[in-house]
Amino acid sequence: MSLSRAPRRRSTSGALLLTAVTVAGVMTLTSCDDADGGSKSSGSAGGNYVVGKGGISTVAKGERDAAPKLDGATVDGKTLDTTELKGKVVVLNVWGSWCPPCRAEAPGFAKVSKELADAGKDVAFVGINTRDNSTQNATAFEESYGITYPSLYDPDGKLMLRFPKGTLNPQAIPSTIVLDKEGKIAARTLIAVSETQLRSMIDPLLAEQ
Q: Helix (H, G, I), strand (E, B), or coil: what is residue 53?
């Protein structure tokens, strides 16, 4: 008697297929070493902004979002609340003493802020110092580059997270955000800026009626 050969069965358990997992968008801060930061547009003003030369994004008057309240202790031990600066154009600069691009742009910020103050312009500069473990390094940075305007001390980046999703928010170090006289977000750049670029963000807002 011959034994019938059982049909060969295909395994259904086979090799497991590996699939790519998409990570949901959680806002992360770009390292200051990322020279590509200025080209990113995620989380920005719902498409109502225009990116010009040098990666500067601007929003037309009437389409701007209100900036969040940024308040707390400053590097020099005082307190500051940016909502009290309404009526002025406010320049917010996110920086760290450890960041090479921040060091590169600092002399320009010191010069432009002083010149505008001496000219009596309605402009307030406010730094947001982040990822410095102590105020000593931040203070030394300010003294070294002649920064005379105040900087909020934000070592954990919590103030930066106050910007609403969908607005021109700071996503890199350095970042510069300029608010109009109504306290609304009008311009942003995610890279180090020159004096000329900085003035190009401020001057149109000073001229607004």
A: helix
pLDDT tens digits along 36-52:
333 334 343 444 667 76
Tokens of residue 166, six digits:
């969908």
Judged by DSSP in three states, 173 sits in: coil
Place of tokens 């730094």: 127
Instruction: Name which of 189, 206, 197 is nearest 112 in CA terms.
Output: 197
What are the CA-CA distances from residue 95 to residues 55, 65, 107, 204 (Å)? 18, 23, 13, 24
Structure tokens at 196: 């000329």
End-to-end Cα, the chain, rounded Å: 104
Q: Which two tokens stand for residue 179?
A: 């608010």
Calpha distance 181→86 (Å, rounded): 6
Q: What share of the chain is helix, strand, coil (3-state, %, to 5)?
A: 30, 20, 50
Q: Which phi and psi (to 5°) does residue 98 adopt?
A: -85, -5
Q: What angle do CA 209, 152, 169 make, to 5 degrees?
A: 55
Question: How many CB atoms are located within 10 Å of the residue 111 CB?
Answer: 14
Measured distance CA(166)–CA(114) in Å, rounded? 33
Note if the pTM is more than 0.90: no
- 116 has a pLDDT exceeding 90: yes
CA 40 to chain centre: 11
Token pair in block for residue 55 = 């990666």
